[in-house]
Write a structure and sequence with these properties.
This protein is of the alpha/beta class. It contains 16 helices and eight strands. The chain has an eight-stranded mixed beta sheet, with helices on both faces.
């Protein structure tokens, strides 16, 4: 039996705890919020996953040392804005070679570091991997078929993690491209905000298809310059995660975008959603990275202007549509013109 510790008791952490428990693993869940732990111990339910009943033998604690002791695998499932401070708290209890899988999606806005890089900086003794893909907690908790990708530094680590997660309802692929996986996972939330804004404005399927298609182009162009691989952005953590986040009402980023499109401010939208909207934090970081690498990202730029500069959502869409004419794929060459 593998002992697995879930660091974070939000929807995604609890959904994975349930998944891994039913595959025969011993599960401990940690949260820094005592009221969350008390509620889980008392009710065995999470309000955001009302159909999921957690087993009596699943252990919940706010004692981090107790949660991490003798763990074979740690799963970091806290929101991206809390990753560094949580990793810092974990340092005294983290053993050398500890397998740690980050499942949060985002980029640290101050340093512009990926979350795996943040964790490796705070926990240099750990063997850090990432899990990402089109995987809403609401559906995973219900046992609906889901597919993800795990990225790790070594094939051995990736395949060990893959084996623990694989089940008839949860299929996992492996990849060495941690960077690409994380860039796709973080920036798709920004594009999902744009898709939600378009929905809130009353636009249709044509608009959403354009945002998804041009959005993955922006993500890929930036991700390649940073060192990611083309196949990653065409895979589960790229276009796969982007599609589900832009299309589903499970997506807090899309829901926040819909409210912004209807005239809510960014803060009002986040308050209404009542969950961390990762795309708001990744938007600034994505634009800063694009400026660092001199990559044009018109959708991410317009989202930033709507979120932080008071630009109206309708004006942002108008400016996207009226940009200078250009080619779809500049790297594809024209055939030589033949004179008559």
């Amino acid at each position: 039996m593998t002992k697995i510790s879930i660091i974070g008791a939000g929807s995604w952490g609890i959904a994975l705890a349930s998944l891994l428990y039913h595959q025969g693993n011993k599960i401990t869940v940690w949260s820094a919020v005592g009221s969350e732990i008390n509620a889980l111990n008392t009710t065995r339910r999470l309000p955001t996953l009302p159909d999921l009943k957690l087993p009596e033998s699943m252990f919940f604690t706010e004692d981090l040392e107790q949660a991490m002791k003798d763990s074979d695998m740690l799963i970091m499932a806290v929101p991206s804005i809390y990753v560094r401070q949580t990793a810092e708290k974990m340092r005294p209890f983290c053993k050398k070679g500890q397998i740690l899988v980050n499942v949060a999606k985002g980029i640290e806005d101050v340093t512009l570091m990926t979350l795996s890089a943040v964790i490796e900086q705070e926990l240099p003794m750990a063997d850090v991997a990432v899990l990402s893909g089109p995987s809403h907690a609401e559906e995973v908790s219900r046992g609906l078929p889901t597919t993800c990708v795990v990225g790790a530094r070594s094939r051995q680590t990736a395949e060990w993690i893959q084996e623990r997660f694989m089940s008839p309802v949860f299929r996992v692929y492996t990849s060495p491209d941690i960077l690409g996986i994380e860039i796709g996972g973080a920036l798709k939330n920004v594009i999902a905000l744009a898709a939600g804004i378009a929905d809130g404005l009353g636009y249709g399927d044509n608009t959403k298809a354009a945002l998804i298609t041009r959005g993955i182009y922006e993500i890929t162009r930036l991700g390649l310059i940073m060192g990611g691989k083309t196949s990653t952005f065409g895979g589960l953590s790229g276009i796969g995660d982007l599609i589900v986040t832009c299309a589903s009402m499970h997506s807090r980023n899309r829901r926040a975008g819909i409210l912004i499109g209807k005239g809510y401010s960014m803060k009002e939208a986040m308050d209404e959603v009542q969950m961390v909207v990762e795309g708001v934090y990744s938007a600034k970081a994505g634009l800063a990275l694009a400026k660092r690498y001199q990559v044009p990202v018109p959708i991410i730029t317009e989202v930033n202007q709507v979120l932080f500069e008071g630009k109206s959502a309708r004006s942002a869409v108008n400016d996207l549509m009226l940009r200078d004419r250009t080619e779809e794929s500049a790297e594809v060459e024209w055939e030589t013109n033949i004179s008559q």
